[in-house]
Write a structure and sequence with these properties.
- By secondary structure, the protein is an all-alpha fold.
- The chain has a single domain, classed as PhyR, sigma-like (SL) domain (Butyryl-CoA Dehydrogenase, subunit A, domain 3, Up-down Bundle).
- It is built from nine helices and no strands.
- Helix 5 crosses helix 9 and helix 6 packs across helix 8.
- The longest helix has 22 residues.
Amino acid sequence: MPVNTSIEQQMLASIPHLRAFAVSLTGDLDRADDLVQGALLRAIEKIDLFQPGTQLQAWLFTILRNQFRTEYRKRKREVEDPDGARAARVSVMPEQGSHLDFRDMLTALRKLPVEQREALVLVTAEGMSYEETARICGTNIGTIKSRINRARSALAKHLALESDEEPGPGRLIRAALMMHASP
């Protein structure tokens, strides 16, 4: 089934959001871009499975998430670099404050379990409701709320935030993800 113009426009409009979500999952811009491209190609190949009347962006997020999980299982056998020490020796990170905040946020996000990370990013950075996030993640709303609460607590600990600071969209997550959301 060919992709119609309306669906094509919705897919194009979703790219920055998919990219931000992919960056939060992978912690690597190149891998994130590959993940988004793969998810879009898969969506185009499987467009006949899309149910008109449902949210295309949520469908795309689900494809991207499933693709990430498949790749994650494959990569588990590869050498991991959770703290970025190897990557830091290979490249020189910029010294501007926003880039340092972005790196700190990615490092802290990578320390979270995948389930907490994806729930937090979908709700705080993408602005999705708990209900939408629960559908994308294939679980219930209570589980999503619990994952987000645990993720926020862990991020606050990892980022050494004061108790009155919020590790949500206002401080680092939205700034860091939106800084790299557009190609």
